[in-house]
Fold:
Amino acid sequence: MVHVLSSRVLVRPVDPERSRRFYGDALGLAVYREFGTGPERGTVYFLGGGFLEVAGRAEEAPVPHLRLWLQVADVAAAHEELVAAGVEVLREPVQEPWGLVEMWVADPDGHRIVLVEVPAEHPIRYRPGI
Structure:
């Protein structure tokens, strides 16, 4: 059995500085650690219970099959903040048939990011009798 002690999602952007501005400034993710020097230096951001590492450089934009799921307390507030920061919203916040409120954006390389709000009455949060 593999005993995982920690994990992170690795992103190799075409333009590392642009991606650091997106994740650090526009999304406002807190920095966990930084390493190396120069434009390809690494920055690791907190992602709630995990981490996102932006490091190195890709020769061309990756095929955008990566999806990030980020739970936030208030999707409407996140929407306002991201629009004010100039982030293109791919899909406005909407309550899905499964009960979560979801909004979609993309990072500069096209990786899709869903911001999710779990309403108080949703089964993920609410368990009657417990």
User: Anything to note?
Assistant: Residues 16-26 form the longest helix (11 residues). Residues 20 and 122 are 33 Å apart (CA to CA). The mean pLDDT is 88. The longest strand covers residues 89-95.
